[in-house]
Amino acid sequence: MSDPTSISSSTLQVTDLGRMSYEESLEIQRRLQGEVIAARGGDKATPGHLLLVEHDPPVITVSRRPGARSHLLADEQRLAAAGVTVAETDRGGDITYHGPGQLVAYPILDLNRLDLRLHGYLRWLEDRVLETLARFGLECHRDEAATGAWVGGDLQEDGRHAGNRKICAIGVRVSRWVSMHGLAINVSTDLSHFDLIVPCGLVGRRVTSMKEELGAQAPTIQEVKDALAGRFLSLV
User: Fold this and answer.
1) 25: β partners
2) Gap between the Cα atoms of 130 and 140, Å rounded
């Protein structure tokens, strides 16, 4: 991995970790979350953090939610052939996949300073994703039945979309109202790896990517990093 690069304001430091294993980035998240919690109430406000990363080697992360492990469809032989590892995670949600071509963002934020609680924070993250994707001409929406960002589908009378495709997964953990974990935007992800799982435990729901939706007009992952970081820097 190349050395991390970062930009910062008085309230947020954005660090691009490049490509990094899931376990390494989890250690960094836990350390930073502890630092933000420990500094609360001090004389000098501690900035929050936004970590940007592509996970390599590819990894399937499984939460501690009952039944989440059953949504892993592949056996060890199939996982090894695909070069995909499996890791347990303490975030919310169910099961998902991370790998090259997918932008994963881990905000380490004091939710007290944002005047948010868990439900509001999830909606806040969805807004940042929707704004970022819209910058590249991709109109996405929420799904009333599932957290994240979705593309397409027919709007039903109950406010849900039938036949939509998930382009961003969100799963967080909050300790003493400081967040970790976050969101994963499929930019040019190998979508075949999602066949190894039931993504987010949602049976029959398709997964897509910016490359799948936009073709030759799809942005690079660096362009998406810059756009997402800009949204955070302007609002945190």
Assistant:
1) none
2) 6
User: DSSP code of 177?
Assistant: T
Q: What is the DSSP string of 139-175?
A: -EEEETTEEEEEE--EEPTTS-EET-EEEEEEEEEEE
170 close to 176: Cβ distance less than 8 angstroms: no
Domain ranges of the chain: 5-235
Per-position b or e across 61-90, b if 16+ CB within 10 A of its CB: bbbeeeebeebeebeeeebeebebbbeebe
Q: Could you tell me the fold of the domain covering 5-235?
A: BirA Bifunctional Protein; domain 2 (3.30.930)
- Identity of the residue numbered 101: G
Encode 9-27: b = buried (16+ Cβ within 10 Å), e = exposed.
eebbbbbbbeebbbeebbe
Of 121, 156, 146, 141, the closest CA to residue 232 belongs to: 121
Catalytic residue among 200, 210, 227, 229: 200
200 is catalytic: yes
197: pLDDT confidence band, cut at 50, 70 and 90? very high
pLDDT tens per residue across span 124-140: 999 999 999 999 999 99
Q: What's the sign of the alpha-carbon dihedral 81, 201, 172, 153? A: positive
Longest dimension (CA), the chain: 54
- Regarding pTM above 0.90, the answer is yes
Q: Are the beta carbons of 236 and 48 closer than 8 angstroms?
A: yes
